[in-house]
Amino acid sequence: MLRYYLDDLSTRRRAVRVLYLQAGMKRMTTGRVKISGARNFLAHTPGLVRYGSKPTREIEADPSAEAYILAGLRSYEQAAAYLPNVVYLGGIQPDEMWDIERPWFTNDGEHARRHPYGEMMPEDEFLGVMKMSDDFDILWLEEGFNDVVREKLVAHPYWAEEDLGRLEKGVSLDLIEGQLGPESGNIPLYLRGGRLVGVVNRAHDLDASLFADILLENLATKAAAVMATKTLLGDLKVAADSIPYILNCGEEAVGDRYQRGGGNLAKAIGELSGCTMATGSDVKAFCCGPNHAIAIGASLVYSGLFEQVLVVGGCSSAKLGMKYQGHLSSDMPIVEDVLAGSAILLEKQDGEGATIRLDSIGTHPVGAGSAQAKIMEELVSKPLAKLGLRFGDIDKYATEMHNPEVTEPSGSGNVPQLNYNLIAALAVRSGQIERSEMAAFAREHGMPGFSPTQGHIASAIPFLPHAIDGITKGDLKRVMFLAKGSLFLGRMTQLSDGLSFIIEGDG
Amino acid sequence: MELQGKKVIALGERDGIQGESIGKVAKSAGAEVVLEVTHCFV
Fold first, then answer.
1. Would you say residue B1 lies in a domain?
2. Burial (Cβ within 10 Å: 0-12, 13-18, ≥19) of residue A374
3. Which tens digit of pLDDT belongs to each residue from A77-96?
4. Which end of chain B is more exposed for a tag (fewer CB within 10 A), N or C?
């Protein structure tokens, strides 16, 4: 009897597939996968700002730029009290920002290190985590500084005593100074106040992929990703060794001269995070890498290949101080002084919490063209139409969430607002709202930008922890996450990219 | 603005108007577009 039923089911499935093919339609699953949790991470790294791409180039062209930059760096207390950082870590919700007047950088009152969705780690401890991320004796820390960092990390909830053996003993200041000099190719590590505390040594004399600047970037990315992972798994009380697969979605390029960007930082992150049973790989798609990774990870879970998939992205140290000239010329401190990370856990749905709808995924096909309105049509209008939803059925749209206080002083505008205006315009064009309602729609269904300008980290995913909380508590019903990637920056195509998905409560 | 016969450099932005779109508008107004570039400022 069962065999007859299966035969019949199989026949029906084949028939449905033929019907879809005849209609020229791709069959989409209607399944869901649970987004069990997401956590964000920040490290305040003013001492590394000088090594961001823009500051490095400006200092090279005019060495006096270094003093100008150093004079504009904030204290940890100021950065921890900074409203967008507090929102990123879940201290308050994005909508509350509407009622707090700008400028936000002048508020340096009360601050906290930890918030519901993550922490802001001070620069000394983060250099310690970078050292623990180093398997090749690339990064040396001065011994006295190393001791202080060890004492601090002992008290950290997500580092165990045995992990701290990776810090080793540190080296003398003389040894560090001996590694430096214009011809050395090594990079000194300073704290905000100017104290020399370490050095990043190049790993090869001739291979540019293993020069100190690249290794500094990769170690910082690995460290931020590990901290985001440890925060997520620790907060959710998920055993690290239960994770079977990791997708890293950062914008770093790990490799050597024969395989530049060879990648799989995922496994390196898993190793230091204690995910001993995990394998993994990297998903690269510029800023929409995380959204692609979430869609792929959800598919791996839904297919049954893996019970859980961890999606993680580390920081973009190249973007430290990217717009410092605009900040300093506007009498602001340099607010691009933090490195960020994010981690997301996907699992089989269990009737609770937030789920990603696999039938909601919007893509930007090669043939769609790169005009902004066209991209938004593909990512927003089409998925909504396919699901029979209206623009107003999405409670919140999480798009490019860059903090406008970072971008506006240098003339780059309010990026989230530009995107919300376009979504509202599409709603007008579809006849779902009046033109006069655009501003109200953008405010109700959007939110102020609060993310640090950390590339892939700023694209949609900063709102994931907030959205999961809102859906679980019943404050939000449905949230769309749409991210875009500037593929043209790599000079291999003029195309852009994008991917969107909707999350809802289960059931 | 009279663009007929002028040479135009079209500098666009990903989250605003792309260089390609600016270029098309300039061409339709009779300009010669000598460069189209789209930047990403974030």
1. no
2. middle
3. 999 999 999 999 999 999 99
4. N
Lookup: tokens for A389: 């939803």
Task: Provide the domain count of chain B.
Answer: 1
Q: Would you say A262 and A218 are in contact if contact means Cβ atoms under 8 Å apart?
A: no
**Chain A residue closest in CA terms to B40:** A486
Task: Report whether A153 contacts A128 (CB < 8 A).
Answer: yes
Tell me the domain boundaries of chain A.
25-33+354-505, 34-122+210-348
Contact B18 A370 (CB under 8 A): yes
| A103 vs A62: CA distance, rounded Å | 30
Buried b / exposed e along A25-44 (16+ C-beta atoms within 10 A): eeeeeebbbbbbbbbbbbbb
Q: Which CATH architecture has domain A34-122+210-348?
A: 3-Layer(aba) Sandwich (3.40)
Helix then strand count (H, E) for chain B reads 1, 2
CATH topology of domain A25-33+354-505: Peroxisomal Thiolase; Chain A, domain 1 (3.40.47)
**pTM for the full predicted model:** 0.93
Q: A201, A195, A194: which is closest to A178 by C-alpha? A: A201
Q: What is the tens place of the pLDDT at every residue in A379-404?
A: 999 999 999 999 999 999 999 999 99
B contact test, residue of A412, A414, A489, A496 with most B CBs within 10 A: A412
